[in-house]
Design brief:
157 residues; alpha+beta; five-stranded mixed sheet; 5 strands
Length: 157
């Protein structure tokens, strides 16, 4: 299975623009359990947190889901995220949302373009210049002379 642009559109992942993740699903079914192992390999495209241009994010990870088969599903049985409880007579297992959650949880917290070999950002230079301009302006405006008196305070150690 491949998680591509169509998958991301179906999942309504507004921050994931494109990608190509190969997904291998291994299922081992026993009498009362189904062990689902998913291996993801590929990349996704998401907007940069700094300049909003697309960033290619390589991904390779595995995740696991345990499905417990029971005669009747009681309310509150599916409280655990790591173990799903399903009726043993169910013949179909929809893991679409599980796959979606795995991808979202594997995403880095901060998405930015990588620095070049000299340590300079490869983000859009126009956006970087505007950010620098705005941060310099805000630093000038944030100075409050009332706080200068506190700098002269001496604390006994």
């Amino acid at each position: 299975m491949v998680c591509d642009k169509q998958f991301f559109e179906l999942a309504e992942l507004t921050d994931l623009q494109d990608g190509c993740l190969d997904l291998r699903v291994d299922m081992i079914k026993t009498e009362k359990l189904v062990d689902v192992k998913c291996h993801f390999s590929g990349f996704v495209m998401a907007p940069c947190d700094r300049c909003l241009l697309p960033v290619n994010i390589p991904m390779e990870f595995e995740d696991r889901l345990i499905v417990k088969l029971v005669p009747t599903v009681e309310e509150g049985d599916n409280e655990d995220d790591d173990i799903w409880v399903m009726d043993e007579n169910t013949y179909e297992l929809d893991i679409f949302h599980f796959v979606y959650e795995c991808i979202r949880l594997a995403m880095p917290l901060r998405i930015v373009h990588a620095d070049d070999e000299n340590g300079h950002s490869t983000c859009d230079p126009a956006v970087l210049a505007k950010l620098k301009e705005l941060s310099a302006d805000s630093a000038k405006q944030d100075h409050d002379p009332r706080w200068d008196a506190l700098k002269n305070l001496k604390l006994d150690s």
